[in-house]
Amino acid sequence: MKRFAIVLAAGQGTRMKSKLYKVMHPVLGKPMVDYVVDAARDAGMDEVITVTGMGAELVEEHLGAKCQFVFQREQLGTAHATQQAESIIGDLEGTTVVLAGDTPLIQADTLKKLIQYHENNQAKATILTAIAPDPTNYGRIVRAADNSVLKIVEEKDASSAEKQIKEINTGTYCFDNRLLFEKLQQVGNDNAQGEYYLPDVIEILQSEDELIAAYTLKDFDEALGVNNRVALSQANQLMRDRINKAHMENGVSFVDPANAYVEATVEIGPDTTIEPGVSLKGDTKIGANVFIGAGTEIIDSQIEDDAEIKQSVIEKSTVGPKVTVGPFAHLRPQSHLLEGAHVGNFVEIKNATLGKFSKAGHHSYVGDAEVGEHVNIGSGVIFCNYDGVNKHRSHIGDYTFIGSNSNIVAPVNVEAEAYIAAGSTIYQDVPSKALAIARARQVNKEGYATKLPNLNHD
Ligand code: UD1
Ligand code: CA
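ok -> structure tokens follow
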């Protein structure tokens, strides 16, 4: 038996009040429709077809080769959207799961169980339902006295008695594929919204005595449909809990899991501790036994084992094993800190490598530089990498010592084991083992201070 999935993602999402199409709104960094397509793929479908319309270009570019696409020119309703897949699978034998692109919490495992249930019962349609604490705005499942499903009624078409029903349509269904496309042709739009409703297929099948089943979710959360920003925040919260729980099960400690935001793409090794207010985003990999202190944001970066990061921002960079960063450091793109390096308070690194065990402890800017091993960068050292037109690189050899408040005017080459005196402005190369002093000599004028007007001892 072939299995197909149709993901409905053509709507604008008016209730989001956004320029961004609804299904592209991210939940923990990943667009909603992405989760739905991934769940369908992970459930082992032979074909996944996404129906696009509003923002089709953006959605298709984003999903890329993950699925096929059909285009719904006008958004006439969920039945009309489903119909667009007819050209690809309409006459094939098989089971079809229809999903809404705005239900990001749906899981592959649930889809597998739904299909199993549908096929075991030899039903023609199976609705994934849930018991909602607040069913407002969902379609309600209307059952007969014998508990069989009669129809689904939308909020706007429901009688006050029907509005009391707590069992809702999750927007995910399983159909006999051929029958689905046959019955879609009979769906009309004589309803409160003037739309062609996919749920009407259920009533049509029921009236023809076909077997309709319902598979009820244990946990309503998975059914959450995101139509507005309030639901979007709930989806973020639920996804955050799901992601953090999975990491905890894999040996990661969260001091306060309700206050740590780890995107779905992030990997974290065991024995790593994550403090409150941390955001880990994009293509980020964190090793084992890493400490990530409160308020840290890490984007598209790799942090290796035993590193310690405190209150810092790290973007598109790599942090080697046993490196310590922060508090209050900023690693801008292409910063590479090798094993045991240290970057401390109010230090900014950009497009620079800091070799093994090298240190920049306080108030420095290291930009466009190759810094060797065991280098000491004193407090307030600035790499002057920009001449107003171009950026230039500097090279600092192993075991050099750069005294506090020095300026390294790029391009400059400081060779291994050189020593730069504090307050120097280095604009010429320094040979290996040399001492460079590039500052005015100090002059002491004996007794002169007593003549100064502001030296006032009564
Ligand atoms: C829909 C269901 C409702 C269910 C709820 C679950 C219908 C008529 N109602 O309501 O029973 O409880 O989902 O979340 O189906 N779409 C298209 N083309 C269209 C219209 C919609 O692709 O012409 C897509 C939307 O982009 C969205 C999905 O279908 O991803 C669902 O549409 P939406 O308008 O959100 O339906 P609901 O009112 O939430
Ligand atoms: Ca919806």
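The chain has two domains: 3-223, 251-436.
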